[in-house]
Design goal:
Elements (H helix, E strand, L loop, with lengths): L20 E2 L2 E2 L11 E2 L7 H5 L3 E4 L13 E5 H7 L9 E3 L9 E8 L2
Parallel strand pairs: 5-7
Antiparallel strand pairs: 1-3, 2-6, 4-7, 6-7
Length: about 110
């Protein structure tokens, strides 16, 4: 496409009627605020740049973040502030599973402005 500066993929189009939402677990047993749910899109490397979403801490996804690598996640600045107020979110771990096993934990590698 002429003039394109970035390309990426996402499983559900942002701001559409279809979203993947839900809760998650924070390592260490920290409880989420009542009714706290988040959008859970799956995105490819380059997504944040393509969408004009600024990385404020850490790194974006890379080609090395695949099914054979340890699981990683990027959270929004608002999620980071809600869960780890006054702390650095990088290196914290969350799981999308209700009863996570050791392989279900994802390490926060980035924080984006959202």
């Amino acid at each position: 496409m002429p003039g394109a500066v970035a390309v990426a993929a996402v499983n559900w189009r942002p701001l559409s009627e279809f979203l993947t939402m839900g809760d998650f677990q924070v390592q260490g047993g920290q409880k989420l605020p009542p009714g706290y749910v988040v959008d859970k899109p799956c995105v490819s490397p380059g997504y944040f740049k393509a969408m004009g979403i600024r990385l404020v801490r850490g790194r974006e996804f890379t080609e090395g973040d695949n099914e054979t690598a340890p699981g990683v996640v990027i959270v929004s600045q608002s999620v980071a502030r809600s869960l780890w107020a006054g702390e650095d979110a990088l290196g914290k771990r969350i799981s999308m599973e209700d009863h996570p096993t050791p392989g279900d934990w994802l390490t926060v590698v980035g924080v984006v402005m959202m």
